[in-house]
Design goal:
Blueprint lengths: L3 H9 L4 E4 L2 E2 L10 H12 L6 H4 E3 L6 E3 L8 H18 L6 H21 L3 H15 L3 E4 L22 E5 L3 E11 L7 E4 L14 E6 L5 E5 L27 E11 L3 E4 L5 H37 L6 H26 L2 E2 L5 E2 L2 H26 L2 H4 L3 H5 L4 H7 L8 H15 L1 H9 L4 H11 L2 H12 L5 H12 L1
Parallel strand pairs: 1-10, 5-8
Antiparallel strand pairs: 1-2, 3-4, 6-7, 7-11, 8-9, 9-12, 10-11, 13-14
Bound molecules: flavin-adenine dinucleotide.
């Protein structure tokens, strides 16, 4: 396993092409826009050597060696539960996305789907993928999970788009491998990953089989271009350490728009090539694993937001006010509800035919749907408690100026025994964690809410619920009628 420093050093040998704000980023380790994201991801490596090492590591079922949990294929419900607990702990330390879970979920989904494709199509993807997994574990790689295509007109399937490159597709194949073209959007942690694992973003018909592609690609492979995303207030990190609110770790995952300009992938890194009928299952497996995470990482973030809100109440001298206590209690309730869902979908996980463990789909989707609302409500309550300061604080440079600084020091003081700067710093942290980019991630990361609603409707077994109700209402089963209805539905 790599420790945090070794991970950071390993990034220096990669040469990805990354554009940001009109310039090329020469080193993600040194550049002020990417370094905080490197620091966050580094925490996933540091944890494997810290007091929570037991949680942060696992034994590889492929090699018997100890590996970082982010490169592990889940072997039981305890692995699934430990994943959630680990994510919560890392979030408590970074206060932001540490990016590496997306790749872990893509790896676990690929493990299941390649097995199924091989069983039914006689292909050799699974063994190929196992070799790849060993390479990932051996080198403790950070993998970007690359599902989301840019998608163009959302009402059209890939092959119906005006521009065929709106979804990543296979352009050609030869004896050595395949060439892919297209772009992946919102790519968390891509700039500071070692490789990306691309997979389809939607269900596909036979006419779209060239879009059914899964493959691992180094982030600096020829033809790969990344354009770094702009985040709320990100330029503040160039101007000091107070105004960012979380100077060391920044906000969300440093997402990129990643363009694949006719990128060559050798066969040993291709895990799906045209098997369109498995695209939907691939997406669902990846999405369920990824939605499981939100009651871990977002609850860790909520822990920090709740702590910051409590601190602000103390700095303002009102921690004992009844409505403040009520609001803090409500925030705890909202956070722990998300945690319960994640623990539940993990504890209710089941073995797969590939031998790994998979979360309960219904419950995993419930986690994320809750998160799209609860994080907004938690943030709303944090804003209420923190006060208007989070919206009107002066610039850090004015706080540090000999002309204006003394005024700010005097007039922005809260409780007498609390330094003004502590109050300012805490307000900035609340602002950072509860605004723009951070909240949008809770909404759309791992899929927009409607994607979860569709899964809830599909997975909830409504027929069985109707039966329960009819039984209690004393309505006798009308066998003939129900059979006719079922036949009609099947058609
Ligand atoms: C911070 C962040 C990090 C992310 N990280 C990753 C990552 O690491 N890897 C990755 O692969 N993806 C990542 N994503 C992408 C995420 O999965 C997508 O944002 C999500 O699936 C929604 O897709 P979209 O953003 O293109 O939204 P859109 O598809 O534009 O959705 C906008 C709205 O339109 C609706 N809509 C879309 N299509 C249809 C349709 N056909 N019919 C009806 N309604 C429709 C949606 O429900 C939604 O309400 C990330 C996203 C964010 C915000």
């Amino acid at each position: 396993m790599k420790n945090a420093l070794e991970y950071i050093e390993s990034l220096r040998s990669l040469k990805p092409i990354i554009y940001c704000n009109g310039q090329k980023i020469e080193s993600v380790v040194e550049h002020p826009m990417t370094r905080p994201h490197v620091n966050s991801a580094a925490m996933t490596y540091a944890m494997a050597f810290g007091p929570d090492a037991e949680l942060a590591t696992a034994t590889s079922h492929l090699t018997g060696k100890k590996v970082n949990r982010f490169t592990h294929i889940h072997q039981g419900t305890n692995d699934l539960v430990n994943k959630v607990k680990l994510l919560r702990k890392i979030s408590q330390k970074t206060g932001t996305c540490f990016q590496r879970c997306v790749g872990m979920d893509a790896l676990n989904a690929t493990f299941i789907v390649t097995h199924k494709i091989d069983q039914e199509c006689g292909t050799e993807y699974h063994n190929r993928f196992i070799e790849y997994m060993k390479y990932v574990q051996e080198n403790d790689l950070m993998i970007a999970g690359s599902m989301t295509d840019v998608k163009g007109d959302r009402s059209l399937k890939p092959g119906e788009q005006d521009d065929p490159d709106m979804y990543v597709h296979i352009v050609s194949k030869n004896e050595e491998g395949i060439i892919v073209r297209g772009a992946k959007a919102h790519q968390t942690g891509m700039a500071n990953s070692h490789e990306m694992l691309i997979l389809p973003t939607t269900n596909l018909g036979p006419e779209d089989k060239d879009y059914a592609v899964a493959a691992a690609i180094p982030v600096d492979a020829p033809g790969v271009v990344h354009i770094f995303g702009r985040q709320t207030n990100d330029q503040r990190r160039l101007q000091g350490d107070i105004d960012t609110g979380n100077a060391k770790f920044a906000i969300v995952g440093g997402e990129t728009l990643t363009i694949l300009n006719d990128v060559f992938v050798p066969w040993n890194k291709v895990f799906m090539c045209g098997e369109h009928q498995y695209a939907q299952e691939y997406v669902e497996k990846f999405a369920a694993y990824h939605r499981q995470n939100y009651g871990g990482c977002k609850v860790g973030l909520s822990d920090v937001i709740i702590g910051a809100s409590q601190a602000m109440a103390e700095y303002n001298g009102v921690p004992k006010a009844n409505h403040i206590k009520d609001k803090i209690i409500e925030m705890i309730n909202l956070a722990e509800t998300m945690y319960c869902c994640s623990i539940a979908c993990s504890a209710e996980g089941k073995p797969t035919e590939a031998g790994s463990y998979y979360v309960d789909t219904l419950l995993a989707n419930t986690v994320k749907l809750n998160c799209t609302k609860n994080m907004y409500e938690i943030s709303r309550l944090a804003h209420d408690i923190a006060g208007g300061l989070i919206a009107t604080l002066p610039y850090e440079i004015d706080y540090k100026s000999p002309v204006t600084g003394p005024y700010i020091e005097k007039y922005l003081k809260g409780k007498a025994d609390v330094p003004t700067q502590d109050r300012i710093r805490m307000a900035r942290l609340v602002e950072n964690m509860t605004g723009g980019t951070a909240l949008a991630e809770s909404m759309h990361g791992a899929g927009s809410p409607q994607a979860m609603r569709i899964m809830l409707y599909r997975e909830a077994n409504l027929k069985e619920k109707v039966k329960f109700a009819k039984n209690l209402a004393g309505i006798k089963p009308q066998v003939a009628q129900e059979q006719a209805a079922a036949t009609k539905e099947d058609k």
